[in-house]
Amino acid sequence: MLQPHHTTLTQFLIEQRRRHPGARGDFNGLILAASLACKAITRTAALGRLAGHEVPAAGAMNVQGEQQKPLDVLSNDWFIRLCEWGGNLAGMASEEMELPYAIPAGLPRGKYLLAFDPLDGSSNIDANVSIGSIFSVLRAPPQVMASEREVSAADFLQPGCEQVAAGYALYGPSTLLVLSVGNGVHGFTLSPDLGEFLLTHPDMRIPEDTQEFAINASNSRFWEAPVRRYVDECLAGRTGVRGKDFNMRWIASLVAETHRILTRGGVFLYPRDTRDASKPGRLRLLYEANPIGYLIEQAGGRVSTGREPLLKVQPDSLHQRIGLVFGSRNEVERIERYHAEPQAALEGEIPLFHARSLFRETA
Q: What is the dihedral of CA 267, 271, 275, 276, to 10 degrees?
């Protein structure tokens, strides 16, 4: 039941702003505009086939070479139209656009950049599995603010530690907005009665230990040795070296995987593999991995490429892909240790003692 004491998203942002007396209201305006886009998307997504938005147009592909669904395009349009006019942004970048979006002439420009995945997990729409939106807020470089030029891709190439806010919306049985403005992670549930996001999950924290991991096992033949070792040890259960049983999960929706880990712990792996040497990972650094990583670390978890801290990675392109491991700190640190060990030790140079994978390798 709705309670009068629930804090609205607007009230929450005002309280955060009061901690910084010199702050203007443009940051709050941007977050509220992004939340409004999420409200619009959840209404559109809820209609499903009733609105004809699930059937992809023939041959429609995005810059990633992936088939676009009409709801992908509509979600992208919602973010643009609801965030461009407020005078908070210098530009936007999206999974669905090859180049950054410049604020149209005649509209005021602001000091922030918005990078977003308008509809994460859209391949799950037909199965009615939870989908969502992911966004990242960066400061525009000083040279953009001091000039009249439009934003370029280079302006977005900032490491994840430079983010000033990040969040995602989860469109499931209820619509949730999970947000960090640099002071922890807080979850808001959309009230159908008020049409407002209300604070329902304050100060979300990830436990340091877990007995749950998420990975796409169909890619096991492409895994590098450290990942294969980690998964095999988990699957060996209490009779193996870990001495405890693990559960394996895989939803194939990054926002849903993230939300599960934020609410009960776990570790998520979408690691670099050997499938395609031109793609050192599958997830996009700027508008998927970085904002999720920011939230995870704000909640006390750890995020990594497996080899290095993710939020310190210097991006080199707008749609750069990367391997991603995140979740309960002790498990992520274990995976990092495995990557740091000499490769020969992982592979096993003595055939008698070579570790056999529980996933059968195929030619």
A: 150
pLDDT tens digits, residue range 117-135? 999 987 777 777 889 999 9
Rounded distance between C-alpha atoms, residue 345 and residue 226, angstroms: 10
**Residue 5 backbone dihedrals phi, psi, to 5 degrees:** -85, -5
CA distance 271 to 335: 11
320 CB-contact burial (10 Å; exposed 0-12 / middle 13-18 / buried 19+): middle
Q: What is the pTM of this model?
A: 0.91
As a whole number of angstroms, the distance between CA 223 and CA 270 comes to: 10
The H-or-E segment that residue 330 falls in is helix 329-340
Residue type, 303: V
pLDDT, tens only, 325-353: 999 999 999 999 999 997 645 554 433 34
8 A C-beta contact, residue 232 and residue 246: no
